[in-house]
Automatic annotation (TrEMBL):
InterPro entries: NAD(P)-bd_dom_sf (IPR036291), SDR_fam (IPR002347)
Pfam families from the UniProt entry: adh_short
Name of the featured protein: SDR family NAD(P)-dependent oxidoreductase
Length: 289
């Protein structure tokens, strides 16, 4: 259970949702996990959510790892640079980088074609979901190269380059895939793998609140949106990332795009309720049928 003991991980955007459960799962495997985000017990981010990086870090420690909360706005270069200077000073290395920073939900205007979508919101989305991923990777690369055998995981939405219903949203999510693939080419000689991972219909804290349900009675939300029945909890992608981080043959997967449902078939993990949601099959057989 302590297969990642001694490993140093950074989960950028680990305050809530997928980032939180990824952090906890890496901690459960014994890793020391730096958890970054903008919401602390003393200051709330513009997202207006109650979850904090301190809570996530405490959950990491309770799971068996070492959780370290660091308040970072990843759009501010000085804060990003300072984060990696701190990691280098305290540990001298970085083995795992998971970038789950997003914050684009309030910026996406679904149903509005390009040209009608608010330009300011669209450009801000690229800054948050593309620019800061580049900036964070830029400062992480020197430490990852030294680690030899490191891993970069970019959390995205979708496993291909097809449009995702909104120009700006598509551009952001597809860019995350391309960043992962480009880093794979650059880092291969250093034995550092880089991949993109997508969840399915994620029932995050915000999504549960939107439908007025909890993780215990989440299926009731299918009365509002029938597709919610095929959703998955953040625990599922947490398991996926943990399995990837533990995989001794991870370099064979570098440059690839994976989904939680595909990886569950490879590694055999299940969601928190004991099921194996398969959004790919649901989308193909129900939504697209």
């Amino acid at each position: 259970m302590q297969s990642l003991k001694g490993k140093i991980a950074l989960v950028a955007g680990g305050t809530r949702g997928a980032g939180r459960d990824i952090s906890v799962k890496l901690g459960e495997a014994g890793a020391k996990v730096y958890v970054t985000g903008r919401t602390t017990r003393n200051q709330q981010s513009p997202m207006g959510r109650s979850e904090t990086i301190e809570e996530t870090a405490e959950m990491v420690t309770e799971a068996g790892g070492i959780g370290i909360p660091v308040k970072v706005d990843h759009t501010v270069e000085s804060e990003v640079k300072g984060l990696f200077e701190r990691i280098k000073e305290e540990t001298g290395r970085l083995d795992i980088l998971v970038n789950d920073i997003w914050g684009g939900d309030p910026l996406t205007e679904w149903g509005r074609p390009f040209g009608e979508h608010d330009l300011g919101k669209g450009m801000q989305m690229q800054k948050q979901a593309v620019g800061l991923h580049i900036m964070t990777a830029h400062y992480a690369i020197p430490l990852l190269r030294e680690s030899r055998g490191g891993l970069v995981i970019k959390i995205t939405d979708g496993i291909d380059y097809e449009p995702r219903g909104s120009f700006y949203y598509s551009l952001a999510k597809i860019s995350a895939i391309h960043i992962a693939q480009s880093l794979a080419a650059d880092l291969k000689d250093y034995d550092v793998a880089s991949i993109a991972v997508t969840p399915g219909f994620l029932r995050s804290e915000a999504m549960l609140e939107l439908f007025g349900v909890t993780e215990e009675n989440w299926k009731e939300a299918a009365e509002i949106d029938p597709h919610f029945i095929a959703s998955e909890s953040p625990y599922y992608i947490g398991e996926a990332v943990r399995c990837l981080a533990e995989d001794p043959e991870i370099l064979d997967k570098t440059g690839s795009i994976f989904s939680t449902w595909e990886l569950s078939e490879v590694y055999g993990y299940k969601d928190i309720d004991g099921t194996q949601p398969h959004w790919g099959n649901y989308y193909k057989n129900i939504i697209k049928a």
